[in-house]
Design a protein that fits this description.
Elements lengths: L11 E5 L2 E8 L2 E8 L5 H4 L1 H4 L8 E7 L1 E6 L5 E4 L4 E4 L3 E6 L4 E5 L3 H5 L5
Antiparallel strand pairs: 1-2, 2-3, 3-9, 4-7, 4-9, 5-6, 5-8
Length: about 120
């Protein structure tokens, strides 16, 4: 098998308040690019769509641009991420853009490309 796609032509785009997601679906890989504008916060922009108290998607990601703060549920810790950071975040968190620059994140885990910002 050999498959190649380009981010210039994503298979899917999902818009939500203060951001959007572009997804590429391939055999064995669902890849997402999340673009989050200043003022974006998961609990305000995506939470009402998902219908959950916190983000229930697992993320394996890479921050391309901007800064994002992630707060785990129930004392699980928090961290600010920036360009060049590679991260793994389990379900059960809130997140928001820090500063006045948009934040762009690549996510390789699959769940973001398949389920993020979709009504349940």
């Amino acid at each position: 098998m050999f498959e190649v796609k380009t981010l210039d032509k994503p298979d899917e785009r999902r818009d939500f308040p203060r951001g959007h997601l572009e997804a590429v679906h391939m055999s064995g890989l669902d890849f997402a690019v999340g673009t989050f504008e200043p003022g974006w916060r998961w609990s305000e922009s995506v939470g009402p769509i998902a219908g959950t108290r916190s983000c229930e998607v697992h993320h394996n990601g890479y921050v391309v641009q901007g800064r994002m703060h992630i707060l785990m549920d129930e004392g699980g810790g928090e961290r600010e991420l920036g360009p060049g950071d590679i991260f793994v975040v389990s379900p059960g968190h809130d997140a928001w853009v820090v500063g006045d620059e948009q934040c762009v994140v690549y996510d390789f885990a699959g769940g973001m490309a398949r389920d993020y910002a979709k009504e349940r």
